[in-house]
Amino acid sequence: MVSKWFEAIAPEVVDDLLEDMLAEASDEESMSILFNILQNCLRMAARGCEGGHGVMQKNGVVGAVAILCFLREHLRQDHTSPANGVLRRFYNSAHRKLLKAHRDEQASLFHELRASVAKLTQKPYARIFFLNCMEETAMSKAQLTRFILSPEVRNAIFRRDHSVRMFAGDGERPTI
Questions:
Q1: Secondary element (H or E) of residue 167
Q2: How do residues 75-128 score in pLDDT, each as one tens digit?
Q3: Predicted pLDDT at 166
Q4: Which are the contacts of 34, defined by CB distance < 8 A and separation ≥ 6?
Q5: What's the distance, CA 151 to chain centroid?
Q6: Is 6 helix (H, G, I), strand (E, B) or coil?
């Protein structure tokens, strides 16, 4: 039942829900949402690579590249702090690794990159990482919302892999 509901959600409804969520989110939460979408893109690219699904891999790579480029383009040019340089190097390195993984069809590189992002966005590093991102990135909430709802990124949001069963099934109770 719930599975059918997820499949029936219209893209416009998802856009509205995401816009509302972003409007109510703090700056740190908004940055977290963007990095979670980046991880989803990397996961999708890896699954596409592993399963031989070229379109899935391409959509994941396009979304991840778009996010990395967006973040790099919005880094403050006037800041000379060490955090700014570290973020710039991280985005450039992640971009190179992403393109290499796609070119060579190496799912392991997608997983490595996703693990690197996950390490920065989880405790104990998450708080300081997001604070540095917010301090070194110049973008408005409207820019971020428009970007997240752009076609490049939308293709990687709320994608459901039908080979993975999310629920026990049609009326079955899961066993413990």
A1: none
A2: 998 878 899 999 999 999 999 999 999 999 999 999 999 999 999 999 898 989
A3: 34
A4: 67, 71, 144, 148
A5: 14
A6: helix
Rounded to an integer, what distance in angstroms lies between the CA atom of residue 143 and that of residue 5? 30
Q: Quick one: pLDDT at residue 168?
A: 37
Axis-axis angle for helices 54-73, 82-104 (nearest 10)? 160
DSSP class of 44 = H
DSSP classification of residue 173: P
Query: Considering Cα of 39, then 44, then 45, then 47, what sign does the dihedral take?
Result: positive
* Ordered alpha helix ranges (H), the chain: 2-8, 11-24, 27-51, 54-73, 82-104, 107-121, 126-136, 141-148, 151-154
| Mean pLDDT lowest among 9-18, 47-56, 134-143, 159-168 | 159-168
Helix/strand/coil for 137? strand
Q: Are 132 and 46 in contact (CB under 8 A)?
A: no
